[in-house]
């Protein structure tokens, strides 16, 4: 840019320390060329603010008094520092991207990340930003990186594993907390699940109590935390055990002894994930005090609807594993009741509701000890826009036929049954028997057998999902409805989470392509080749 351009003009003539005294000189108002000049200065001022990492956008507004304000949600996040746990996960990454892109006046995003596979927190954050998920952010807000601070820590450790310097920094600067760190493995060891899901929540609360400027703390739970109930409302329910009781058991038993009593602890609860999520909610209920806190319960979270790009997904959890497995011809049958609600929600819509909930929690008046006043949000699809499993599978099949994968190893054939006995028979005939035959031939060819081991993993996945795919729940979502109703028109466009507006057919069209591109790493350029193989 030339030295006479508006960007250089602001940068060089009006140094940061003098901007308040130059207000009248910069702004004259007017029409025509003056209006163009005003727009040019607005863009330049935004770039200037980002480039020098100013402490507050109000400095730039002193220069540019006509600068438009943001939406109510954007204004809530203005000059705020946000702490996120679980930032390397599916929902966490989507949350980081959306905050940085849609809340441009956000001051800082802190992410607690543990070292993993020889990579420290900073290296892992850099790795996150290499994902295509952040491509739009890089285009629209190219200077976002300085606002993201990676902190080395571990939510399962005392004090979150933070250094004293980092702890004091968070206490002094953080205004909003999104606690989403969790182990999502359904068959996780009980001590590990308790450490991350329950102890991590307790450790976060201890840190939050000392935060000087805390405006909102959102605990990300799951809609299935109390899945033994047939109706789940937006309220707290009794915990299967208190955190203290559970810790006493864990600390006084060996790993072998603990493994033996897990069935007794869980009783009719299907797995350690939902068990520890229920305990974490009880910790919130018992220890929140007067903290501005809320609980967000999403249903089964899958790929993006539209933001920042349609169909993005990075994991094969839940129904995505079913679709991918069936799509490549390896999964032939599963124990699912086709006539029950799938209760799926797109991750970007869930994140929109999550971001909006923090503002409402901040505005919620609650008395000390009034745990019933803590807002809980059941973000589900079954209450307002249900889709049954057979509809999901049929739509996925129809759209999948248009873009078959070049990596398919067998023809598509998929059967759902709600009957356990029939599933066992079909599984043996369609999975186990072919795997044994193929592996036998493989061994005779002096190669390592793989297929039987693959099907063992598939059957474990199926066993985990069966509980949630053969039952219906009646969820209330009145708080989510109210949250949406209270948004202004601009925020409804920017943080669109009205599940009623979701067109399932169009969504699954993008979802199928997203699975192919982002999970199978199978570019759409291979579709013609795959179609030829499909039709043979």
UniProtKB/TrEMBL annotation:
Residues 430-522 form the Fatty acyl-CoA reductase C-terminal domain. It is an enzyme of class 1 (oxidoreductase). It is found in: Membrane. This is Fatty acyl-CoA reductase. Its main location: membrane. Keywords: Lipid biosynthesis, Lipid metabolism, Membrane, NADP, Oxidoreductase, Transmembrane, Transmembrane helix. Pfam families: NAD_binding_4, Sterile. It catalyses: a long-chain fatty acyl-CoA + 2 NADPH + 2 H(+) = a long-chain primary fatty alcohol + 2 NADP(+) + CoA. It comes from Timema genevievae. One of its GO terms (cellular component) is membrane. It is a multi-pass membrane protein. Belongs to the fatty acyl-CoA reductase family. Catalyzes the reduction of fatty acyl-CoA to fatty alcohols. Gene3D superfamilies: NAD(P)-binding Rossmann-like Domain. It comes from the Eukaryota. Signal peptide: none annotated. GO terms for molecular function: alcohol-forming long-chain fatty acyl-CoA reductase activity; alcohol-forming very long-chain fatty acyl-CoA reductase activity. The chain crosses the membrane at residues 421-446. Its EC number is 1.2.1.84.
